[in-house]
Design goal:
With 327 residues, the chain is mainly alpha-helical. The protein has 13 helices and 2 strands; from the N terminus they run H-H-H-H-H-H-H-H-E-H-E-H-H-H-H. The termini are far apart.
Protein backbone atom coordinates (compact mmCIF):
# COMPACT_ATOMS: atom_id res chain seq x y z
CA UNK A 1 0.00 0.00 0.00
CA UNK A 2 2.80 2.43 0.90
CA UNK A 3 4.47 1.81 -2.45
CA UNK A 4 1.19 2.52 -4.27
CA UNK A 5 0.72 5.77 -2.34
CA UNK A 6 4.29 6.80 -3.05
CA UNK A 7 3.81 5.98 -6.73
CA UNK A 8 0.62 8.11 -6.83
CA UNK A 9 2.42 10.98 -5.12
CA UNK A 10 5.26 10.71 -7.64
CA UNK A 11 2.80 10.76 -10.55
CA UNK A 12 0.96 13.81 -9.18
CA UNK A 13 4.22 15.62 -8.50
CA UNK A 14 5.45 14.79 -12.00
CA UNK A 15 2.26 16.11 -13.59
CA UNK A 16 2.43 19.34 -11.58
CA UNK A 17 6.09 19.76 -12.52
CA UNK A 18 5.24 19.24 -16.19
CA UNK A 19 2.53 21.89 -16.00
CA UNK A 20 4.97 24.29 -14.35
CA UNK A 21 7.69 23.64 -16.92
CA UNK A 22 5.20 23.96 -19.79
CA UNK A 23 3.92 27.32 -18.52
CA UNK A 24 7.45 28.65 -18.16
CA UNK A 25 8.57 27.21 -21.48
CA UNK A 26 5.75 29.05 -23.25
CA UNK A 27 7.35 32.35 -22.28
CA UNK A 28 10.06 33.48 -24.69
CA UNK A 29 12.38 36.47 -24.88
CA UNK A 30 11.60 36.67 -28.62
CA UNK A 31 7.82 36.36 -28.27
CA UNK A 32 7.01 39.64 -30.07
CA UNK A 33 9.83 39.62 -32.62
CA UNK A 34 7.45 39.10 -35.52
CA UNK A 35 4.08 40.25 -34.15
CA UNK A 36 5.24 43.55 -32.62
CA UNK A 37 9.00 43.99 -33.19
CA UNK A 38 9.08 47.56 -31.86
CA UNK A 39 7.29 46.75 -28.59
CA UNK A 40 10.36 46.73 -26.34
CA UNK A 41 11.73 49.86 -27.97
CA UNK A 42 8.44 51.69 -27.34
CA UNK A 43 8.28 50.61 -23.70
CA UNK A 44 11.90 51.71 -23.14
CA UNK A 45 11.17 55.11 -24.70
CA UNK A 46 8.12 55.72 -22.52
CA UNK A 47 9.82 54.54 -19.30
CA UNK A 48 12.76 56.82 -20.06
CA UNK A 49 10.34 59.73 -20.50
CA UNK A 50 8.59 58.90 -17.21
CA UNK A 51 11.88 58.74 -15.28
CA UNK A 52 13.02 61.99 -16.83
CA UNK A 53 9.88 63.56 -15.38
CA UNK A 54 10.24 61.80 -12.00
CA UNK A 55 13.07 59.44 -11.08
CA UNK A 56 10.96 57.86 -8.32
CA UNK A 57 8.74 56.36 -11.00
CA UNK A 58 11.34 53.66 -11.67
CA UNK A 59 10.83 52.25 -8.18
CA UNK A 60 7.05 52.58 -8.52
CA UNK A 61 6.94 50.58 -11.76
CA UNK A 62 9.22 47.88 -10.35
CA UNK A 63 7.00 47.63 -7.26
CA UNK A 64 3.87 47.27 -9.40
CA UNK A 65 5.42 44.27 -11.15
CA UNK A 66 6.28 42.74 -7.75
CA UNK A 67 2.77 43.33 -6.39
CA UNK A 68 1.25 41.95 -9.57
CA UNK A 69 3.21 38.70 -9.59
CA UNK A 70 2.59 37.88 -5.92
CA UNK A 71 -1.20 37.93 -6.45
CA UNK A 72 -2.74 35.59 -9.07
CA UNK A 73 0.68 35.36 -10.74
CA UNK A 74 2.03 37.83 -13.28
CA UNK A 75 -1.27 38.57 -15.04
CA UNK A 76 -1.66 42.35 -14.84
CA UNK A 77 -4.44 42.01 -12.23
CA UNK A 78 -2.95 44.81 -10.11
CA UNK A 79 -3.81 47.25 -12.92
CA UNK A 80 -7.57 46.60 -12.90
CA UNK A 81 -9.94 49.32 -11.66
CA UNK A 82 -13.04 48.68 -9.54
CA UNK A 83 -14.45 48.55 -6.02
CA UNK A 84 -12.94 45.19 -5.07
CA UNK A 85 -9.55 45.44 -6.76
CA UNK A 86 -5.98 44.90 -5.68
CA UNK A 87 -5.40 48.64 -5.95
CA UNK A 88 -7.61 49.10 -2.90
CA UNK A 89 -5.96 46.35 -0.84
CA UNK A 90 -4.17 47.58 2.28
CA UNK A 91 -0.61 47.07 0.90
CA UNK A 92 -1.49 49.08 -2.23
CA UNK A 93 -3.94 51.73 -1.04
CA UNK A 94 -2.35 55.21 -1.10
CA UNK A 95 1.01 53.70 -2.05
CA UNK A 96 0.83 51.78 -5.35
CA UNK A 97 1.43 54.28 -8.15
CA UNK A 98 2.47 54.55 -11.78
CA UNK A 99 -0.84 53.48 -13.28
CA UNK A 100 -1.01 56.54 -15.54
CA UNK A 101 2.46 55.75 -16.87
CA UNK A 102 1.31 52.21 -17.70
CA UNK A 103 -1.68 53.72 -19.52
CA UNK A 104 0.65 55.87 -21.59
CA UNK A 105 2.90 52.94 -22.44
CA UNK A 106 -0.05 50.72 -23.32
CA UNK A 107 -1.53 53.38 -25.61
CA UNK A 108 1.80 53.81 -27.39
CA UNK A 109 2.15 50.05 -27.90
CA UNK A 110 -1.48 49.74 -29.05
CA UNK A 111 -0.88 52.45 -31.65
CA UNK A 112 1.95 50.33 -33.04
CA UNK A 113 0.28 46.90 -32.89
CA UNK A 114 -3.23 46.72 -31.50
CA UNK A 115 -4.32 43.78 -29.38
CA UNK A 116 -0.95 42.04 -29.41
CA UNK A 117 1.07 42.93 -26.30
CA UNK A 118 -0.39 42.17 -22.86
CA UNK A 119 -0.44 44.58 -19.95
CA UNK A 120 1.31 41.91 -17.86
CA UNK A 121 4.22 41.82 -20.33
CA UNK A 122 4.38 45.61 -20.54
CA UNK A 123 4.67 45.72 -16.75
CA UNK A 124 7.47 43.14 -16.77
CA UNK A 125 9.39 45.05 -19.46
CA UNK A 126 8.83 48.40 -17.71
CA UNK A 127 10.19 46.97 -14.45
CA UNK A 128 13.35 45.80 -16.21
CA UNK A 129 13.81 49.15 -17.96
CA UNK A 130 13.23 51.01 -14.68
CA UNK A 131 16.11 49.10 -13.08
CA UNK A 132 18.40 49.60 -16.08
CA UNK A 133 17.67 53.32 -16.45
CA UNK A 134 18.31 53.80 -12.73
CA UNK A 135 21.85 52.44 -13.12
CA UNK A 136 21.14 48.78 -12.46
CA UNK A 137 21.57 45.61 -14.52
CA UNK A 138 19.63 44.56 -17.60
CA UNK A 139 18.25 41.18 -18.59
CA UNK A 140 16.18 39.57 -21.31
CA UNK A 141 12.56 39.46 -20.15
CA UNK A 142 10.65 36.24 -20.86
CA UNK A 143 7.43 37.28 -22.65
CA UNK A 144 4.13 35.81 -23.72
CA UNK A 145 2.00 36.41 -20.62
CA UNK A 146 -1.69 37.10 -21.09
CA UNK A 147 -3.83 39.30 -18.89
CA UNK A 148 -6.09 37.99 -16.14
CA UNK A 149 -9.83 38.63 -16.06
CA UNK A 150 -10.23 39.25 -12.32
CA UNK A 151 -8.47 41.06 -9.50
CA UNK A 152 -7.94 39.47 -6.09
CA UNK A 153 -8.13 41.98 -3.26
CA UNK A 154 -8.09 39.37 -0.49
CA UNK A 155 -5.08 37.75 -2.13
CA UNK A 156 -3.27 41.08 -2.07
CA UNK A 157 -4.21 41.69 1.57
CA UNK A 158 -3.01 38.26 2.65
CA UNK A 159 -0.25 37.39 0.20
CA UNK A 160 1.86 40.52 -0.14
CA UNK A 161 4.75 40.92 2.33
CA UNK A 162 4.47 43.97 4.59
CA UNK A 163 7.10 46.21 6.27
CA UNK A 164 5.94 44.99 9.69
CA UNK A 165 6.46 41.24 9.34
CA UNK A 166 9.21 38.97 10.63
CA UNK A 167 11.67 37.10 8.42
CA UNK A 168 9.80 33.78 8.85
CA UNK A 169 6.53 35.46 7.87
CA UNK A 170 8.05 37.12 4.81
CA UNK A 171 9.92 33.97 3.81
CA UNK A 172 6.67 31.99 4.02
CA UNK A 173 4.95 34.37 1.61
CA UNK A 174 7.86 34.11 -0.80
CA UNK A 175 7.86 30.32 -0.50
CA UNK A 176 4.13 30.26 -1.29
CA UNK A 177 4.94 31.57 -4.79
CA UNK A 178 8.05 29.44 -5.29
CA UNK A 179 10.72 31.90 -4.16
CA UNK A 180 13.46 31.21 -1.61
CA UNK A 181 15.45 33.12 1.01
CA UNK A 182 18.00 34.34 -1.55
CA UNK A 183 15.10 35.84 -3.49
CA UNK A 184 13.89 37.54 -0.29
CA UNK A 185 17.20 39.31 0.22
CA UNK A 186 18.02 40.10 -3.41
CA UNK A 187 14.55 41.42 -4.22
CA UNK A 188 14.57 43.47 -1.01
CA UNK A 189 17.57 45.14 -2.63
CA UNK A 190 15.10 46.77 -4.99
CA UNK A 191 14.67 49.24 -2.14
CA UNK A 192 17.93 50.80 -3.29
CA UNK A 193 15.65 53.19 -5.21
CA UNK A 194 12.39 54.88 -4.29
CA UNK A 195 10.65 56.43 -1.32
CA UNK A 196 8.54 55.18 1.59
CA UNK A 197 5.79 56.87 3.58
CA UNK A 198 6.15 57.70 7.27
CA UNK A 199 3.23 55.35 7.98
CA UNK A 200 5.36 52.39 6.93
CA UNK A 201 8.14 52.97 9.46
CA UNK A 202 6.95 55.47 12.11
CA UNK A 203 6.36 52.66 14.61
CA UNK A 204 10.15 52.37 14.84
CA UNK A 205 10.67 56.00 15.81
CA UNK A 206 9.19 56.56 19.27
CA UNK A 207 9.20 54.56 22.49
CA UNK A 208 6.30 54.64 24.97
CA UNK A 209 7.59 57.83 26.62
CA UNK A 210 8.11 59.52 23.26
CA UNK A 211 11.69 60.44 24.17
CA UNK A 212 13.63 57.99 22.02
CA UNK A 213 13.44 55.51 19.19
CA UNK A 214 11.43 52.37 19.80
CA UNK A 215 13.75 50.34 17.57
CA UNK A 216 17.26 50.25 18.98
CA UNK A 217 18.66 48.83 15.72
CA UNK A 218 18.01 52.21 14.05
CA UNK A 219 21.16 54.35 13.82
CA UNK A 220 20.93 57.32 16.21
CA UNK A 221 21.37 60.22 13.80
CA UNK A 222 18.98 58.68 11.31
CA UNK A 223 16.42 58.13 14.05
CA UNK A 224 16.65 61.81 15.05
CA UNK A 225 16.22 62.96 11.45
CA UNK A 226 13.23 60.70 10.94
CA UNK A 227 11.59 61.82 14.19
CA UNK A 228 11.69 65.39 12.87
CA UNK A 229 10.34 64.32 9.49
CA UNK A 230 7.64 62.05 10.91
CA UNK A 231 6.51 63.47 14.28
CA UNK A 232 3.96 61.60 16.35
CA UNK A 233 0.46 62.26 14.97
CA UNK A 234 2.07 63.80 11.88
CA UNK A 235 1.23 63.24 8.22
CA UNK A 236 1.74 59.53 7.55
CA UNK A 237 2.01 60.21 3.81
CA UNK A 238 5.23 62.22 4.09
CA UNK A 239 7.99 60.35 2.25
CA UNK A 240 11.72 59.81 2.53
CA UNK A 241 14.36 57.77 0.71
CA UNK A 242 14.38 54.01 1.21
CA UNK A 243 18.14 54.04 0.60
CA UNK A 244 19.51 56.92 2.65
CA UNK A 245 22.14 58.96 0.74
CA UNK A 246 21.58 57.01 -2.49
CA UNK A 247 17.96 57.69 -3.38
CA UNK A 248 17.78 57.25 -7.15
CA UNK A 249 20.77 55.08 -8.06
CA UNK A 250 20.28 51.32 -8.34
CA UNK A 251 23.37 50.01 -6.53
CA UNK A 252 24.37 47.94 -3.49
CA UNK A 253 24.36 50.93 -1.11
CA UNK A 254 21.11 49.67 0.43
CA UNK A 255 22.97 46.70 1.92
CA UNK A 256 25.75 48.90 3.29
CA UNK A 257 23.06 50.90 5.06
CA UNK A 258 21.65 47.75 6.67
CA UNK A 259 25.05 46.95 8.16
CA UNK A 260 25.22 50.53 9.54
CA UNK A 261 21.72 50.33 11.07
CA UNK A 262 20.26 52.63 8.42
CA UNK A 263 17.60 50.41 6.91
CA UNK A 264 14.43 52.47 6.72
CA UNK A 265 11.77 49.77 6.94
CA UNK A 266 11.73 47.25 9.74
CA UNK A 267 11.48 44.48 7.11
CA UNK A 268 14.73 45.77 5.62
CA UNK A 269 16.78 46.10 8.78
CA UNK A 270 15.76 42.70 10.17
CA UNK A 271 17.57 41.03 7.27
CA UNK A 272 20.77 41.93 9.10
CA UNK A 273 19.87 42.80 12.69
CA UNK A 274 16.92 40.69 13.83
CA UNK A 275 17.22 37.66 16.09
CA UNK A 276 15.27 35.92 13.33
CA UNK A 277 17.97 36.75 10.79
CA UNK A 278 19.07 33.35 9.59
CA UNK A 279 22.72 32.96 8.77
CA UNK A 280 21.69 33.06 5.11
CA UNK A 281 20.05 36.51 5.23
CA UNK A 282 22.80 38.15 7.25
CA UNK A 283 25.50 36.54 5.12
CA UNK A 284 23.83 37.66 1.90
CA UNK A 285 23.54 41.24 3.17
CA UNK A 286 27.25 41.21 3.93
CA UNK A 287 28.15 39.67 0.57
CA UNK A 288 25.97 42.07 -1.42
CA UNK A 289 27.35 45.06 0.46
CA UNK A 290 30.85 44.11 -0.67
CA UNK A 291 30.10 42.79 -4.15
CA UNK A 292 27.67 44.70 -6.36
CA UNK A 293 28.17 42.25 -9.22
CA UNK A 294 26.93 39.40 -7.02
CA UNK A 295 23.91 41.45 -5.97
CA UNK A 296 23.11 42.35 -9.58
CA UNK A 297 23.41 38.71 -10.66
CA UNK A 298 21.16 37.39 -7.91
CA UNK A 299 18.69 40.24 -8.35
CA UNK A 300 18.33 39.49 -12.08
CA UNK A 301 17.86 35.77 -11.40
CA UNK A 302 15.22 36.52 -8.77
CA UNK A 303 13.37 38.98 -11.02
CA UNK A 304 13.21 36.39 -13.79
CA UNK A 305 11.98 33.75 -11.33
CA UNK A 306 9.36 36.14 -9.98
CA UNK A 307 8.20 37.09 -13.47
CA UNK A 308 7.53 33.40 -14.14
CA UNK A 309 5.03 33.00 -11.29
CA UNK A 310 1.91 31.35 -12.75
CA UNK A 311 1.73 33.20 -16.07
CA UNK A 312 -1.40 32.90 -18.19
CA UNK A 313 -0.41 31.65 -21.63
CA UNK A 314 -1.93 30.15 -24.75
CA UNK A 315 -5.69 30.73 -24.79
CA UNK A 316 -5.96 31.58 -21.09
CA UNK A 317 -6.84 35.14 -20.14
CA UNK A 318 -6.81 37.82 -22.82
CA UNK A 319 -4.85 40.73 -24.26
CA UNK A 320 -6.49 43.76 -22.67
CA UNK A 321 -6.97 46.79 -24.89
CA UNK A 322 -7.12 48.94 -21.75
CA UNK A 323 -5.06 47.78 -18.76
CA UNK A 324 -7.68 49.06 -16.32
CA UNK A 325 -10.62 46.97 -17.55
CA UNK A 326 -11.23 43.58 -19.13
CA UNK A 327 -12.27 43.63 -22.78
Amino acid sequence: MKSIICLCCWVVASVLLCFSITATAQLSTTFYDTTCPKALQIVRREVKSALKNEMRMGASLMRLHFHDCFVNGCDGSVLLDGNDTEKLAVPNRNSARGFEVLDTIKNAVENECSGVVSCADILAIAARDSVLLSGGPSWKVPLGRRDGLVANQSGANNGLPTPFETIPQIAAKFAAVGLNITDVVSLSGGHTIGLARCATFSSRLFNFSGTGAADTTLETNMATDLQRLCPQNGDGNTTTALDRNSTDLFDNHYFKNLIDGKGLLESDQILFSSDDAAAATKSLVQQYSQNSSLFFRDFVNSMIKMSNISPLTGSNGEIRKNCRVVN
